[in-house]
Amino acid sequence: MDYFIEDFGLDRSVVSSLYGAGTFAASLSLTWVGRQIDRWGNRRVGSVIGALFALVLALCALITGPALLFFAFVGLRALGQGGLTLVGSTAVANWFRQRRGRMMALAALTFALFQGVYVNALRLLLEAYDWRQVFLLLGIAVAALVVPSVALLMRDKPEHYGLEPDAAVDGERAGKTLKLEENWTLDEALRSPMLWVLLFARMLASAWLTGLVLHQVSIFAGLGHSAQVVTETYALLSLVAGGAALLGGFLIDRFSPNWVVILKLLALIAAAVLAMSMRESWQLILYALSFGMVIGIGYVFDGAVWPNLFGREFQGEIRGFVFAALVIGSAIGPALFGFSYDYAGGYSPVLWLGAGLSAIVLALSFMVRAPQRPEIPPG
Fold first, then answer.
1. How far apart are CA 257 and CA 211, in angstroms?
2. DSSP code per residue over 149-178
3. Nearest residue to 99 (alpha-carbon basis) of 252, 238, 218
4. How far apart are CA 26 and CA 34, in angstroms?
5. CA angle (86 as vertex; 83, 91 as ends), nearest 5
6. Dihedral sign (CA 82, 83, 89, 90)
7. Quick check: 376 pLDDT over 70?
8. pTM of this structure
9. What is the DSSP letter of 129?
10. Contacts for 196 with CB less than 8 Å, ≥ 6 apart
11. What would the pLDDT profile of 270-311 be if each residue is shown by its tens digit?
12. Would the pLDDT of 98 be above 70?
């Protein structure tokens, strides 16, 4: 962001608004992308999205002003964080049923470890090269590594190869599970109260966590903490998130998703309250624990819960709809924090709002039950 501000002479609020608008526009495509995954498979769609993502990265080297910057944000969010994430997570969900949560947790843990490597690599690249050159190098890397990997190694569904989900673990049990699996369309799933309760819980987490991250330095400074304390707290938070992802995968395989989301909402409420009062070291540790718990469970929740509830056949379309809602939440959250700071005298109003909304959704989570199709009368 700082490079764009400096090179184009833009205000930070302008770049942030362009990012939010681009994020919102990108979210509108994700349900359609999920539908294409259901129709054409992960390998074909992933190869196309990967190639387009590489092209967009390379074209980012040509950004000259706010208009092109907006379109760059749209492409990066829609194809990278949106499309490729859907491709990878739906592939894992297709191949596992009994241990889907645990496998999603392992995938999330791998991603978290890789994230620590590539963020530092990008920092070194930006120190050595102009940001335009870095974008071009990233485009070449995606074209050379990601696209061939997806095209050659990705596999869509085990049934295409005479196999069944979890066949390597317990073929007989997996075969029995497949017979009982119900595949809901998006229209059918939208009639389920549980979908909406879980979706609102995920949107709240997406909105408030994004707000906390993007305004973290200001929030910590208001409580008397230096930038070094911010770094130390978020280092601990990342470790907690990795462990929470493993815990979340274990819980999702064994309990109803509404109980898992109740734990997530309790952690979100704790993080919001602590963000207003964490002046002591032990409070910072609790903040990192609660924040990391929300992130870690979120890593595996969407990849495992929706196919568990609504089957695998239309999971791309269903998860595309859910992912679009989460991206919208991540665009709205930082703006709410900004308005709270500028017009309400600080972050406490928006943090209390997040805690209150989370408490309402938490209460609803106790009431919802697993979705069931209404029985169709004979004749």
1. 25
2. HHHHH----GGGGT--TTHHHHHHHHHHHH
3. 252
4. 13
5. 130
6. positive
7. no
8. 0.75
9. S
10. 190
11. 999 999 999 888 999 999 999 989 988 887 888 788 888 888
12. yes
Instruction: Say how many C-beta atoms besides its own lie within 10 A of residue 371's C-beta.
Output: 16
- Taking the CB of residue 206, how many other CB atoms lie within 10 A of it? 22
Query: Are the CB atoms for 104 and 326 separated by under 8 Å?
Result: no
Q: pLDDT band at residue 2, thresholds of 50, 70 and 90?
A: low
Q: Give residue 374's pLDDT band: very low, low, confident or very high (50, 70, 90).
A: low
Mean pLDDT of 347-372: 92
Whether residue 350 contacts residue 337, with contact meaning beta carbons closer than 8 Å, is answered with yes
How far apart, in whole angstroms, are the C-alpha atoms of residue 195 and residue 261? 12
Return d(Cα 198, Cα 297) in angstroms, integer: 13
Tokens 């491709």 locate to 87
Q: Which helix (H) or strand (E) holds 365?
A: helix 348-367
Confirm if 291 and 160 have CB atoms less than 8 A apart. Answer: no
- Which range has highest mean pLDDT (171-180, 210-219, 232-241)? 210-219
Longest dimension (CA), the chain: 73
Closest CA relative to residue 308, chosen from 99, 79, 19, 2? 99
Angle of helix 131-141 relative to helix 42-59, nearest 10 degrees, comes to 160
* 3-class SS of residue 185: coil
Task: Give the integer Cα–Cα distance in Å for 288 and 237.
Answer: 5
**Could you report the per-residue pLDDT of 303-332, keeping only the tens digit for each?**
788 888 888 888 888 888 988 888 888 888
**What is the average pLDDT across 242-250?**
84
The domains located in the chain, with CATH, are 2-160+169-367 (1.20.1250.20)
Enter the tokens of residue 297: 């469970």
Report the alpha-carbon distance of residue 311 to residue 318 in Å, rounded.
10
Residue-wise burial string across 18-38, b where 16 or more C-beta atoms lie within 10 A, e elsewhere? bbbebbbbbbebbbebbbbbb
Give whole-number Cα distances, 18 to 23, 236, 255, 373, in Å: 8, 31, 41, 42
Q: What are 101's two structure tokens?
A: 């949560």
Is residue 317 within 8 Å of residue 197, measured between CB atoms?
no
Q: Which amino acid is at 315?
A: Q
CA distance 71 to 66: 9
Residue 178's pLDDT is 45
